[in-house]
Amino acid sequence: MAAAELPGKYQKLAQEYSKLRAQNQVLKKGVVDEQANSAALKEQLKLKDQSLRKLQQEMDSLTFRNQQLAKRVELLQDELALSEARGKKNKKSAESSSQLSQEQKSVFNEDLQKKIEENERLHILFFEADEQHKRLEAELRTRLEVLETDAAQHQAVVDSLTRKYTDTIEKLQNDKAKLEIKSQTLEREAKDCRLRTEECQQQLKNLQAALGSRLEESLCIISEKVPFNDTRSNRYNALNIPLHNRRYQLKLRDLAGQALSFVQELVTALLNFHTYTEQKVQIFPIDSATDTISPLNQKFSQYLHENALYVRPLEEGMLHLFESITEDTVTVLETAVKLKAFSEHLASYLCFLRKILPYQLKSLEEECESSLCTAALRARNMELHRDMKRLTAVFEKLHTYISLLALPSTKPEGLLRTNYNSVFTSIAASLRGSHDILKDISKHYSQKATLEQDIPTVTQKLITTNDCILSSVVSLTNGMGKIASFFSNNLDHFTASLSYGPKGGTEFISPLSAECMLQYKKKAVAYMKSLKKPCADSVPYEEALANRRVLLSSTESREGLAQQVQQSLEKIAKLEQEKEHWMLEAQLAKIKLEKENQKLKNSLSGYLAETVQERSVLPNVTEQKEETTEKSQREPIKSTSLVGMLTITTDNEKAPDVESREDLIKKHYMARIAELTSHLQLADSKSVHFHAECRALAKRLSLAEKSKESLMEELKLASQNISRLQDELMTTKRSYEDQLSMMSDHLCSMNETLTKQREEIDTLKMTSKGNSKKNKNR
């Protein structure tokens, strides 16, 4: 089990490693992309810094230029104020110089205007550059924050991967250690297996030698005792009795019972359908109670009235077929003789269908020509016209295939065994086709019945008849559907059961050989039953165990037991003679007793008369006498005779009591008889005991023979097991060697993958450290 689980475990580890490797590659790609993005952003940042420095330099130069211009403007203004003050003093000189100042002023104004415009433009550029710089700085800062978060996430992923890789490395190292231990144990087991194989090979050689000698002996016995091998010839082999497959017979009988129930339902539905169709012909389109129907319908109803003569035999034939399939028979197509009778009954029903088909079609045409028939009803009648033709054709096909199946039991050359499967499939297809046709008939009849209810002159009798026809058609459809599904579901069993036959042969040659085989099978069954007759009751098991030591220690021989039985028989004969003697003595004593009773009665009659007179005179004296008689009756008196000891009671030691003496004699004889019967029973029990001991010894002998046979069978099984174990050892040895090679290869590949993973983890750590340093520098 451990060796079987290792490849699956390594496969799971390889899958996890491939997943981690794919994730590692994705992370590598992401880190490289981020590094490229960060480098591009650094270049852009450098360019922006350079442009910002240029703009700052231009700004500084412009501010310096503006300051110079402002100073110059101030100087010019001062000069203008001085010139105006001088102009007041000297207007003339001013007029002459005004022209020059105006020219200079215009030049200065133009120059100033240009400088102002240039200053405004530079201010605008500076403001725009400043805004752009601020916006770019904000973007870069946000992007830097995003990159820092991404770098932190990547660092966390890298840390988790490193932890995971370290865990996997530890697991793989542990697995490697376990596999090394297992490989060592497997090597030890392989060594043990080699030793066992050597021992088994030695035993195999010994067994082969023993079996070779036994084979030679058996071949000699076969050549001397067996005159010929009847399994070589199909003609003789067909007469051999096949192995009895009770499960197959019970299954086949169960299937035959189901088929019988389905056929009974189908027969009932067909009877109802034909009967209700006859009633329908009698009342539509012309009611026979009010008017005469056409001669065609009269003939049609006459034929329909005979349907039971053709339908009932189907059920009887199926019943006979079911009864022929029993648990004790061999049921194949060659022995299924009753299938021929069922085929003949189906042929007679097919003739009936062919006979009524033209009348049925003409009746439908006549119904279409009636004035009550509408266009829709005429269309339904024509559909039924086609359906009836199709139904008859399907029954013809079904009869053809069933008659083909009946051929092997009468004419085996009429149907080859290779065609059995195709015949069964054709029967299944025909049953399905008949079920489809009956469904169409049911649909068309229901439509026809609804249309006939709309006729103004419809009667209640016609409506009920239509309902009955519909119910019979529905039951007929359901029955045919059950038969079709039943046959299709059990088609494999029907086709597979055809291989049932004598050992070494594939078929029965002819029905005659199959019949002879069945007769031989009956004789064999009778012989086996005679062998399996119940034995007489033996000694109970507990008593046999208790007497086992006595049986083992007994030294009496069979002759001694016979002498004991003879002595017991002689004793029984003597006891019988004594019994007869005592019976005669009892009869004599009985005669004497009767005579004594007569004497006592005569003497007592006179004595009683005297006592009556005395009682009338002396009642008290009688009471005393009665007490004395009671006391005297209680005192026993013993007397000896030829009969034995008798215990009697006396009445005043003169007149004996008759009844008590008779009872005592009876008790004495009963005791003697009981004693003799006990002696007889003791002798009987001894003889039965000896007989039981003999039977127990015979049973032990038979048990010893059976144990000898079972030991021989166990020896055969042991030889077979040894050969099987040798094969298994060879296969296990090869599998262990393959597994060891695979495990070594796998361990090498795992070591390589571990080294690669370590290198990749180191590179990832280095790259992650470099990225973190760069982010910190940023």
What labels would you give this structure?
coiled coil, RNA binding, 84% helix, mainly alpha, three-stranded antiparallel sheet, 778 residues, PPP1R21, single chain
Neighbour order of strands in the largest sheet: 1-2-3
Low-confidence stretches: 614-656
| Count of helical regions | 17
Q: What's the end-to-end separation, in Å?
A: 59 Å
Order of helices and strands: HHHHHHHHHHHHHHHHEEEH
Quick one: overall form? elongated
**What is the averaged pLDDT score?**
76
Question: What is the count of β-strands?
Answer: 3
Structural class: mainly alpha
User: Any idea what the radius of gyration is?
Assistant: 64 Å
- Helical proportion? over 70%
Largest sheet: 3 strands, antiparallel
Strand content: under 5%
Subcellular location: Early endosome
Keywords: Coiled coil, Endosome, RNA-binding
Protein name: Protein phosphatase 1 regulatory subunit 21
Pfam families: KLRAQ (PF10205), PPP1R21_C (PF21636), PPP1R21_helical (PF10212)
